[in-house]
Design a protein that fits this description.
alpha+beta, Helix Hairpins, Immunoglobulin-like, 2 domains, five-stranded mixed sheet, five-stranded antiparallel sheet, 16 strands, 26% helix, 30% strand
Length: 305
């Protein structure tokens, strides 16, 4: 389908991931070993395939360890083939999962003691895994979609920076609040490099009820921290805006939040967002496919116009 007149061909581009969203944007040294210390946090923030792969690897390693211990005891499993790691492994799985088919059973005091240790370890592992999966599955999230680009254009006669977002769910985010900052590289008077965070005041930073779409507007006037800046000066400073929104999900009655980081090259000057509301058979409605659409204006040489 061809794009509507006056819209950039980039309107249908898929959502882009900013490099600012990557936790490995800057190298870290001197942290020390923290894998076990932050294991729960790492699993909570990992993807579901990553979590399942980790749990499967742990399950296999756990049973392989006990299979080796059973073999080290000698003839410790009745009805098992002598020296068979396969039989010992499957006996360990049955013990850990408390399946107990009754074909293979422990033989001797040491073997039974080892079964006690494994059963206890399996019970603890099951409890921890259940808690992890429940916590990860039940963690509230805000299905808020941000436009691919942040724009600098004219609206109602004023030069503004614009970030547009929409609520993808058919729910209400109550008492929603929005915040936009700008990260930029600067040098102190002593020649020290640092990444400065600049707050960009919004025309409206709160919404009693966020249901459809919301365009965050920062006016580029004399009171703006960006007054006098040009696209070239902002590019040299590697200026990158970050927008965030938070509120209370009405259905879950829990706090939710979402954010979007824009790289410097994702800020477009001389453009404004196209109308996201369209006329349909049932009346006027929200078209999320038009969230990224924008119209080009006359190019401007400065950030504040």
């Amino acid at each position: 389908m061809s794009p509507p007149p006056g819209l950039s061909p980039e309107q249908h581009a898929p959502p882009r991931r900013s490099r600012l969203d990557s936790p490995e944007l800057f190298a870290r040294t001197g942290e020390g070993p923290r894998l076990l210390e932050d294991l729960f946090h790492r699993l909570m923030t990992a993807t579901w395939p990553g979590v399942f792969a980790f749990l499967l690897a742990g399950f296999v390693a756990f049973n392989a360890l006990f299979a080796g211990l059973y073999l080290a005891l000698g003839d410790a499993i009745s009805s098992a083939r002598p020296g068979s790691f396969e039989d010992a492994f499957f006996f360990s799985v049955q013990t850990m999962a408390t399946i107990g088919y009754g074909v293979m059973t422990p033989r001797g005091t040491l073997a039974n003691a080892l079964v006690v240790v494994e059963a206890f370890g399996g019970m603890m592992a099951t409890a921890i895994t259940t808690g992890l999966v429940f916590a990860k599955f039940g963690r509230p999230t805000a299905r808020v979609r941000f436009a691919n680009a942040a724009l600098v254009g004219r609206l109602e006669g004023k030069r503004v920076r614009m970030v547009r977002l929409a609520n993808e769910r058919r729910n209400r985010i109550m008492e929603a609040s929005a915040h936009v900052v700008l990260l930029r590289d600067e040098l102190s008077a002593e020649g020290l490099f640092y990444r400065r965070v600049v707050d960009l005041p919004l025309q409206r930073d709160r919404s009693v009820m966020f249901v459809l779409s919301w365009t965050l507007l920062h006016t580029l006037d004399e009171s703006s921290p960006l007054y006098g800046e040009t696209p070239e000066s902002l590019a040299r400073a590697n200026a990158s805006p970050i927008a965030s929104v938070s509120g209370t999900d009405e259905a879950l009655m829990q706090a939710v939040h979402a954010r979007k980081a824009y790289d410097a090259d994702a800020v477009l000057f001389g453009a404004s967002f196209a109308d996201i509301f369209v006329e349909g058979p049932g009346g006027r409605g929200l078209d999320l496919d038009r969230l990224h659409d924008y119209r080009l204006e006359h190019p401007s040489s400065s950030a504040e116009g």
